[in-house]
Design brief:
CATH superfamily: Autotransporter beta-domain
Structural class: mainly beta
Number of strands: 12
Number of domains: 1
Number of helices: 2
CATH topology: Lipocalin
Low-confidence stretches: 7-12, 26-37, 293-298
CATH class: Mainly Beta
Strand content: over 45%
Order of helices and strands: HHEEEEEEEEEEEE
Length: 298
């Protein structure tokens, strides 16, 4: 049909017009055989600048204290004690100067602690004994907490020339650590028990129910000196016995020490012709072991 139309146009003299119209008619996308080519990008390339380098953050200095590198302190020794010997002078029911031996042995393993102590005095004149005293005691403690403790104790005293020649006693009770600093300690306790005593020239023992009051005070004066005061008291219907002991100890070198001691033994009820009070002064040299170094006061 299109061919007939073109032929009629040429016959009528419209051939040039028809040719111009064909040239200006856009090609249909379905009949176009060549795809349009995109224009080349003539924009100049922009050089990319790398971002500025950022310094890493400085580490923050910790204000917490550095952990200690010192080794942990050693636990207190289980066993410790003193052994001493020296000169003794006694007055009261016996007046004599002689030698003496005494010891203290402590065992500690929390919450338990055991204190064993003893002493011996003996004097001779012309082959005859003029003074003879032996004492031994043991005290077992159970610490309920850092301040309170329970205890049980037994004591034996043999004084051949004293108003009370023999004394056996035992008690149990409650105590308290009243003072416990690097330089000072103070312990006091109260107990209930019984004793058996025999007076001089008597052949039979007397038995009593007793109350007890004991105290121990220690003052570490310096790195080389220490003062110790103990008090033992037994009170009952028949007699009251009071036994304070004062001791000043000075370190000589390392574990060796010198000690000056003063002891009083008082009985309220004594046989006729005997003294109520005996006094004992000692000057000893001794050896200590297993104890922590004394802390000097600030």
């Amino acid at each position: 049909m299109q061919t007939g139309i073109k032929l009629s146009a040429y016959l009528l003299g419209l051939g040039p017009v028809l040719a111009f119209a064909e040239d200006t008619t856009p090609a249909s996308p379905a009949t176009s055989s060549t795809a349009a080519t995109p224009a080349a990008d003539t924009t100049p390339a922009v050089e990319q600048t790398p971002p500025p380098s950022v310094a890493p953050p400085l580490p923050i200095e910790s204000t917490a204290p550095a952990p200690s590198t010192a080794p942990p302190s050693a636990p207190p020794p289980i066993w410790s004690g003193d052994l001493a010997a020296g000169y003794v002078k006694s007055s009261g029911n016996a007046n004599a100067s002689t030698l003496n031996v005494k010891f203290d042995l402590d065992w500690k393993s929390d919450p338990w602690e055991n204190l064993l102590s003893g002493s011996a005095y003996k004097a001779n004149s012309n082959g005859d004994s003029t003074d003879e005293k032996y004492s031994i005691g043991n005290k077992l403690l159970f610490n309920l907490n850092p301040d309170d403790y329970l205890f049980g104790q037994v004591n034996y005293d043999d004084d051949r020339f004293g108003a009370i020649t023999e004394r056996y006693s035992g008690s149990a009770g409650y105590g308290r650590h009243l003072l416990h600093t690097p330089t000072q300690t103070l312990d006091m306790d109260l107990g209930l028990g019984a004793n058996r005593t025999r007076e001089q020239d008597a052949h039979r023992f007397k038995s009593d129910v007793i109350g007890t009051f004991d105290a121990t005070y220690i003052w570490k004066i310096s790195a080389n000196s220490q003062f110790k005061q103990t008090l033992r008291t037994e009170f009952g219907p028949s007699n009251t016995y009071v036994n304070p002991i004062s001791e000043l100890k000075l370190t000589i070198i390392k574990n060796f020490f010198a000690a000056l001691g003063y002891e009083v033994r008082y009985n309220s009820d004594t046989p006729a012709g005997t003294h109520h009070t005996d006094q004992i002064t000692t000057i000893n040299v001794g050896y200590t072991f297993g104890k922590q170094p004394t802390t000097a006061p600030p």
